[in-house]
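User: Structure please.
Assistant: Input sequence and predicted structure:
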Amino acid sequence: MRKLLPFLQFIVRHGLPRAIKAGLDIQQRLAGPPRPPLLPLPQYETRQLREMLTDLLAGRLPPSAV
C-alpha cells in the first residue's frame, strides 16, 4: 500500500485519462493521445510515472520501457 498511494495520488493530481494513457504508452500498449481539450503528460511527469511503474511492476515492464 505504501508504494501504491503515491501512484494513486499521481493519477488523481494529473487526471485519470492523461495518466492512464501515459502509463499504457510506457508499457508499450499504445493508447494514443488524450482527446482535446486534454493534453498529454509533459516529459517530466511521464518520467515520474515511469519510475513509479518500474517500482510497482518490478520485472514486468517491457525492457525498452525502463
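The mean pLDDT is 90.
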